[in-house]
């Protein structure tokens, strides 16, 4: 059908752009020593998770939408939502860490810009982000179940749906944890994965912008370039937060509708809304590296330099 062809085309664009863009960010940060500041390490960390999300979850979601069955059964039914929620946590904590790092940079523009941190410090910060996001998303594994429904149409295969339902076979402690999480899931996701990064980024970016303006007024001519770079990086963080917030809004709308208006909304509409929220999540993971290459001048320059270096080699081959 036309809808399926359009979905395939959109999926291929998101997949190819996301894979290429996130690999480019990783290669730029890992291959250039002067790019290994804490900010760029945080961006590379975000690119790793976005790559995993697009490479693993996007094909699974599209396969289910086209065939109405999960490729690996209950495993993907549980793991795909878990990874999607964990990706929200990774992005949220990365944005907060970037805001804090930009504020630190604005307080001492002369010394901090592109400062190389030791491996232990960087690894510790990235580990806090990953461990926190993965642990906070664990309850998603408890509330997901795969159900098989008959369509009622002759010669039509049954439909597999991944729904929010807690298994009665779970131990009492996990069952209570699942019930508590299910009851608080709507406002937990809204507060932690939408309000926190949005409000924190806005507040911290405003304070950082004031610090940068004061530094610009008090600086000598030689520091103007570094101050401009700091200002661009601050704007880049704000742009990332705006894109993230815009892509997370449908997910929150879907949660609200599911919690309060599910009885009055057709099941087909609910499935389309949920699919839209998933595709926007993948779209955010694909747009982020392109946005970084366009707005962050050091990353964009390093990307162009790598292209210029590789083109003569390709032509010689």
TrEMBL record:
<dbReference type="Pfam" id="PF00001">
    <property type="entry name" value="7tm_1"/>
</dbReference>
<dbReference type="GO" id="GO:0042995">
    <property type="term" value="C:cell projection"/>
</dbReference>
<dbReference type="GO" id="GO:0043235">
    <property type="term" value="C:receptor complex"/>
</dbReference>
<feature type="transmembrane region" description="Helical">
    <location>
        <begin position="42"/>
        <end position="62"/>
    </location>
</feature>
<keyword id="KW-0812">Transmembrane</keyword>
<dbReference type="InterPro" id="IPR017452">
    <property type="entry name" value="GPCR_Rhodpsn_7TM"/>
</dbReference>
<keyword id="KW-1133">Transmembrane helix</keyword>
<feature type="domain" description="G-protein coupled receptors family 1 profile">
    <location>
        <begin position="21"/>
        <end position="292"/>
    </location>
</feature>
<keyword id="KW-1003">Cell membrane</keyword>
<dbReference type="GO" id="GO:0008528">
    <property type="term" value="F:G protein-coupled peptide receptor activity"/>
</dbReference>
<keyword id="KW-0297">G-protein coupled receptor</keyword>
<dbReference type="GO" id="GO:0043410">
    <property type="term" value="P:positive regulation of MAPK cascade"/>
</dbReference>
<dbReference type="InterPro" id="IPR000276">
    <property type="entry name" value="GPCR_Rhodpsn"/>
</dbReference>
<protein>
    <recommendedName>
        <fullName>G-protein coupled receptors family 1 profile domain-containing protein</fullName>
    </recommendedName>
</protein>
<keyword id="KW-0472">Membrane</keyword>
<dbReference type="InterPro" id="IPR003909">
    <property type="entry name" value="GPR37_orph"/>
</dbReference>
<dbReference type="GO" id="GO:0007193">
    <property type="term" value="P:adenylate cyclase-inhibiting G protein-coupled receptor signaling pathway"/>
</dbReference>
<keyword id="KW-0325">Glycoprotein</keyword>
<keyword id="KW-0807">Transducer</keyword>
<dbReference type="GO" id="GO:0005886">
    <property type="term" value="C:plasma membrane"/>
</dbReference>
<feature type="transmembrane region" description="Helical">
    <location>
        <begin position="275"/>
        <end position="296"/>
    </location>
</feature>
<dbReference type="GO" id="GO:0036505">
    <property type="term" value="F:prosaposin receptor activity"/>
</dbReference>
<feature type="transmembrane region" description="Helical">
    <location>
        <begin position="185"/>
        <end position="212"/>
    </location>
</feature>
<keyword id="KW-0675">Receptor</keyword>
<feature type="transmembrane region" description="Helical">
    <location>
        <begin position="82"/>
        <end position="103"/>
    </location>
</feature>
<feature type="transmembrane region" description="Helical">
    <location>
        <begin position="12"/>
        <end position="30"/>
    </location>
</feature>
<keyword id="KW-0732">Signal</keyword>
<feature type="transmembrane region" description="Helical">
    <location>
        <begin position="124"/>
        <end position="143"/>
    </location>
</feature>
<keyword id="KW-0832">Ubl conjugation</keyword>
<keyword id="KW-0966">Cell projection</keyword>
<keyword id="KW-1015">Disulfide bond</keyword>
<feature type="transmembrane region" description="Helical">
    <location>
        <begin position="233"/>
        <end position="263"/>
    </location>
</feature>
